[in-house]
Amino acid sequence: MDEAQDFGDLWWTSLLRCLRDPAHGGLFLFGDAGQRVFAPGGTGPIDLPPFELDENLRSTKPIAQLSGSVSDRRITPRGGAGAPVRLIDVPAEDAVEAADDAVEALLDEGWDPGDVALLTTRTRHLEQVNRIDAVGHDTYWDDFFDGTDVFYGHVLNFKGLERPVVVLAANGFRDAERARSMLYTGLSRARSLLVVAGPRAEIERIGGDAARHRLVASEAWALQG
């Protein structure tokens, strides 16, 4: 099972009851404490020491280096060189609009719509709200896995998922204590190209000196209106 860091005690009880043989069945747990988005509420039922995965094989080096700078663990990037992270420095209240413009520009560049996901960090994108209201959660997620159109989601519902291109709209954070983990999650979802739209100063404040250092290598992207 994945996202083990967010499981509470009652969830573990339910999970163990799903085993065909509770006495001799086995569990394989995968988790990342750096992406914990809920208050610690449980301990996995495994006494063995964890095996630490400290390499990023999913993303290009620029993406892995920036997302790794916001992690509390040392993560070694093993992906290809890749394009620099693109940064659109705008106030939080303008981040979603800038992200929308970025998606349009990326499609004009030739990216396939199914390659792109737009994620927000605070309020959900209106397109996400409208799609769920129109077709329901099941079809909304079916559309994601079909991979035929731009996906609109929130960082919290995109944990463990990925797309070649992620446009992260840093439109604020409801909980200051979770801001760093949410930022880390959002920055680490892209495989080939990451675009960040939001206030650079706030991102640097949340990410700290390591993130500030990595953002020096980013490409300032000024979209044409």
TrEMBL record:
<protein>
    <submittedName>
        <fullName>ATP-binding domain-containing protein</fullName>
    </submittedName>
</protein>
<dbReference type="InterPro" id="IPR027417">
    <property type="entry name" value="P-loop_NTPase"/>
</dbReference>
<dbReference type="GO" id="GO:0005524">
    <property type="term" value="F:ATP binding"/>
</dbReference>
<keyword id="KW-0067">ATP-binding</keyword>
<dbReference type="Pfam" id="PF13538">
    <property type="entry name" value="UvrD_C_2"/>
</dbReference>
<keyword id="KW-0547">Nucleotide-binding</keyword>
<dbReference type="InterPro" id="IPR027785">
    <property type="entry name" value="UvrD-like_helicase_C"/>
</dbReference>
<feature type="domain" description="UvrD-like helicase C-terminal">
    <location>
        <begin position="157"/>
        <end position="196"/>
    </location>
</feature>
